[in-house]
Amino acid sequence: MALCSELRIPFRPISTNFKATKKIPTRLSCSRQSPDGDDEPPRPSDGLKKRISEQSSWETKDLEGRDYLYRLGQEADNMNITVGARKGIVDDLFVGNFLGRDADIVFDYRQKVTRSFQYLQGDYYIAPLFLDKVACHIVKNYIAHLLDIKVPLILGVWGGKGQGKTFQTELIFRAMDIEPVIMSAGELESERAGEPGRLIRERYRTASQVIQNQGKMSCLMINDIDAGLGRFGNTQMTVNNQIVVGTLMNLSDNPTRVSIGQKWREFDVTHRVPIIVTGNDFSTLYAPLIREGRMEKFYWQPDREDIVNIVHKMYAKDGISKEEVETVVDAFPNQALDFYGALRSRTYDQSISKWVNDIGGYENLGKTLLKGRKSGDLQTFVPPEQTVEALLESGHSLIREQQLIVNSRLSKEYMKNIDD
């Protein structure tokens, strides 16, 4: 008989004709006898997965059933997808000298920085004047070598706040099947000098690679450029601001010769990529950058017909007729396009408050909302029925808030000791 600790326990086979309600791994230091009388090491019970180690957390699963190694590979930038096939990380036998330094030669192309517009579902209105200007600028740059004229590389779309400059441009990209590279003003500054300028050149070359490798039209778009490069009052000009301005000017003058740090090579010629920038006030930008020949300016101020058509498409799912849209637009003149989008959002407030009460109130909102989203048992939200009266009521509420901000000027009350 085998010994378990200091007790002699006869080994008897246990019947397996039952269903365990919960699988609990057993930790026994017992040995069992083989038919020959020799001791054998303990074996895990039937149906139990053998763990690497009882003290290891590598096999711990998250809520989605994925272990720690999977998460680490997804989150870390130095796992096998990046350096696992690189020279010096693994043995040269597996890398192969014929592939050069990096065996993973397509890694750079997996870093997709281009933008697709699958989220733009539905039928939207594109202003004809806006479409004509953007499409003409893109086409002129693609056939610049056939034209005996100076073609500006940059198109500057500017105008009042909330007039749909970026959204209209994205709709045009979708309609023309363009896969652009999009940047924001927040990427035009960095703690490292020269980094934003280098980033612009890299993104420009990425758009050129889209044209060459994918056979699709592309462009570089920088949103709200005046927020990153504009001079407001006593704001300070940084080295990165100067380098970004110089980079854009250099791209305009030499659109097919773009370096990101390597030595100049005669055969390193990139495709000419049109650049589109948006902003609210281009008078704050460096004047030589926006001069004729480098930047073509387009002031976008939608007229009443454009606003009515755009808002009508916005409210099409709610069954609001074009005549009713005209009533709403005429009730709030001189408002930007985003104002009419805010009207529709404001009409949801009462319905959302009622829905919160139906699912248990604000006190239990955290548990109910998060658990319901994970399990899929969250109560369905029924959107409210849109009416002209509800839209007008929401509009007057927004107007009161706008006026309150203008009239109150609480900063004057807080800092009375500071002169104007």
From TrEMBL:
Q: Report the residue ranges that make up the Ribulose bisphosphate carboxylase/oxygenase activase AAA helical domain in this protein.
A: 304-402
Disordered, as annotated region: 25-55
Query: Which terms does the record give in the GO molecular function aspect?
Result: ATP binding; ATP hydrolysis activity; ribulose-1,5-bisphosphate carboxylase/oxygenase activator activity
Q: Which Pfam families does the record match to this protein?
A: AAA (PF00004), RuBisCO_activase_AAA_helical (PF21228)
Its annotated compartments are:
Plastid, Chloroplast stroma
List cellular component terms (GO): chloroplast stroma
Q: What is this protein called?
A: Ribulose bisphosphate carboxylase/oxygenase activase, chloroplastic
- The source organism is Dioscorea cayennensis subsp. rotundata
